[in-house]
């Protein structure tokens, strides 16, 4: 039982960055180290808060996802509910996510994990430069051997049934970043997950500080022309290299094309690719479509691993 608990905790910590879903970045290969602007619902680089055009905003979004092309549905459903408040150079976010694992085809049973996460990002900047720090904390729970015979079993089991607390699953993590802007380009450096574990103690040393270091570049065509008129077409793209000082270096690249129907309404298409630098041909293709009508955005995203089973995500976002 102790070994099983350790495996669960390791799984939770290793996939921590995968719980919160950002509609844009998820479909753009999970870039984000240098991404700036007001269209994000999460802040991978805390320094980007300084360049958010929207001050005092509130975001709520719900995502539901599942694996496609499998002979039994639901196969691996998951969902999350996120709220995010953005003020002047600070964000507060709360996420409750549920994800399934270890599907048993014989009796349609799964293991179910729930994670609650609170994050705070602070940033400071001047002109074209900014720096930020993010603090994330939370805890995890589990339910093992859960019946999953139909798609309706997932919301009932995930949000109505009691969970068992995972021993020592409480965690706190810190990230830091720097960004600068030159014309339509932005450049970012991020040090994520800089705290490590030494037994049951949290440690910070040179190795943990740079264990998840990354850098990125991002280009975004301004939504306004030189005459101050709103452009109907807006496009952006970016490239990230993550885990720079690790053998597991990864590359993420993606872009977005948006067509503005009106000042507060638009449609967009997004695509990206992510893979380890040691094996670029064996990565994951990402794609997505989005439609925004004033304060409501609906996104349909998909992950298509090379040689693997694809996964679809539906994300509803409310902006206030």
Topology (SSEs and partners):
Elements: H1 2-14, H2 23-27, E1 57-67, E2 78-87, E3 90-104, E4 109-126, E5 129-147, H3 153-159, E6 164-165, E7 171-182, E8 185-191, E9 196-198, E10 201-203, H4 206-209, E11 213-220, E12 233-242, E13 250-262, E14 265-276, E15 284-293, E16 296-305, E17 311-319
Antiparallel strand pairs: 1-2, 1-17, 2-3, 3-4, 4-5, 5-6, 5-7, 7-8, 8-11, 9-10, 11-12, 12-13, 13-14, 14-15, 15-16, 16-17
CATH architecture title? Beta Barrel
Radius of gyration: 20 Å
**C-alpha end-to-end distance:** 45 Å
- Provide the CATH topology: Porin
Instruction: List the strand order in the largest sheet.
Output: 1-2-3-4-5-7-8-11-12-13-14-15-16-17
Structural class: mainly beta
Tell me the β content. Answer: over 45%
Unreliable residue stretches: 1-19
Largest sheet descriptor: 14 strands, antiparallel, barrel
State the name of the first-level CATH class. Mainly Beta
Number of strands: 17
In CATH terms, the superfamily is monomeric porin ompg
Q: What is the tally of helical segments?
A: 4
Percent range of helical residues:
under 10%
| Overall structural domain count | 1
> Taking all residues together, what is the mean pLDDT?
86
Shape: globular
Helix-strand string? HHEEEEEHEEEEEHEEEEEEE
